[in-house]
Amino acid sequence: VAYVLTAVGAALACGLELLEAMAIVLAVAVTRRPRDAVVGALAAVAACGLLAAVLGPVLVARISVAPLRIVVGVALLLFGLEWLRKGILRLAGRRARSSSYAEFLEEQEALESMPPPVEGVDWAGRTIAFKGVLLEGVEVILIVTALGARPGGLAPALIGAGVAAVLVAAAGMLLHRPLRRVPETELKYGVGLVLTTFGTFFTAEGLSVHWPLGDAALLVLLAWWLLASQALVRQLARAPLAGAAR
Amino acid sequence: VKTVLRATVKLVLGETWQLPLGVAVAVLAAGALRLSTGGGGWWRHGGGLVLAALLALALGAAIAASTARSKPAEQAGTGPSEGREDPVNGPEIA
């Protein structure tokens, strides 16, 4: 159970973040020069690789097991509950739905107002691609590191992230068409559920809780968060809109 | 440097202060319960459910705070996408 949930959580989180990064890189490539977009993106990938190489071993080696579980659990809770909060607001119609395609169009529109230099290196294009990939990449690394910090968690986390990276890269080769088809709001809500489930599980273990069902308790927690979040969605959807907006 | 710091804080803590504060309160309250029970007794088997309930309350409070300060997406047009200026985020972390 833990293996599958870790792999699915890592794959979804990684895939969705990479999709957002790809939207920015594609916008730079389409409106400016593809080469500068790729150079900026590759530099960010290298920076993220360095961060991953440093962060993982330090986190595991320097902290003993119980505090590590609390640190990892709270990190997953911060990410997961934030994704869940946004997902609940979107599903209840209180927030615009997530769309990497809309982000692509916005980025493209913004870039068209400042044309690239006629000759020489397009530093502006490279910087935009670098920043976009770096910010999304750091989030991927934090989530995958947290999911993989548990004994036996590294393999499924890396497999999930790797599969997602390959799929998103393949989608990127077909340019922006796949961006429109991805139900991002629902997938992000699902990532929020999985990350929050693991966060609750690890934090409780760090606080000396012994889950009666072992790893199978993850499914109970997943059901709990699904019910709790759906109750919030329904409650928000029923509430009068004018009353909610002040 | 300021932009990078702001982006990092937003990346780790999210878009609002209510949720990280709620998580902190829930985990600290669970820690206090664990200390008061010595980590044994009912806490050992039921503490996880207490933590889950406290976290759900924190999530509900954060959502209530977000909606109380915001306009619905319908009134704000199509609205921007992820990571952009959004009228329904609640107070942004500066």
Brief characterization of the structure:
The complex is a heterodimer of chains A (246) and B (94). Chain A contains 10 helices and no strands.
Please provide a written account of the structure.
The complex is a heterodimer of chains A (246) and B (94). Chain A is mainly alpha-helical. Chain A has ten helices and no strands. Chain A has helices at residues 2-31, 34-62, 65-91, 100-112, 123-148, 154-173, 177-181, 184-206, 217-238, 241-244. Chain A is globular, with a radius of gyration of 20 Å. Chain B has helices at 2-13, 18-37, 42-68. The radius of gyration of chain B is 17 Å and the shape is elongated. The relative contact order of chain B is 0.17. The chains are: A mainly alpha (246), B mainly alpha (94).
Write the layout of secondary structure elements.
The complex is a heterodimer of chains A (246) and B (94).
Chain A: H1 2-31, H2 34-62, H3 65-91, H4 100-112, H5 123-148, H6 154-173, H7 177-181, H8 184-206, H9 217-238, H10 241-244
Helix pairs in contact in A: 1-2, 1-4, 1-5, 1-6, 1-8, 2-5, 3-5, 3-8, 3-9, 5-6, 8-9
Chain B: H1 2-13, H2 18-37, H3 42-68
Helix pairs in contact in B: 2-3
Q: What distinguishing features does this structure have?
A:
heterodimer, A: 246 residues, mainly alpha, 10 helices, globular, B: 94 residues, elongated, disordered C terminus
